[in-house]
Specification:
Elements lengths: L7 H8 L2 H12 L2 E2 H8 L3 H13 L3 E6 L2 E6 L1 H31 L1
Antiparallel strand pairs: 1-3, 2-3
Helix pairs in contact: 1-4, 3-4
């Protein structure tokens, strides 16, 4: 069964938490195990698991269990939806600023 595309509101919500942002920053270097993620954060494995669940549900992180180790890595899907949202906003503002520039040039 295919996952639905990420929801930009859920991605922003997930990134609104400083612990989840720290996890994303750490995973941007390379994949990590859950225990490796927990160590510098000084939180329990259960808490890391809960944060990872939120990040995974919105498409920012993918986890995979091999044997007894759960490895986490970034997932491009959540970042793609963010990029598209930013591009859409940027385009709208660029058009508005172009119209303002045209208006000011007329005077």
């Amino acid at each position: 069964m295919e996952k639905p595309p990420p929801d930009v509101n859920r991605v922003f919500h997930a990134l609104g938490d400083p612990t989840r942002r720290a996890i994303v920053e750490t995973l941007s270097e390379r994949p990590h195990s859950v225990s490796a993620l927990a160590t510098p954060l000084d939180i329990t494995l259960t808490a890391v698991g809960q944060h990872l669940q939120v990040l995974e549900e919105c498409g920012l992180v993918h986890t995979e269990k091999i044997g007894r180790v759960r490895t986490c890595r970034l997932d491009a899907a959540g970042f793609s939806v963010l990029e598209q949202w930013i591009r859409d906003r940027r385009s709208a503002w660029e058009r508005r600023l172009d119209r303002l520039g045209d208006l000011l040039a007329e005077e």
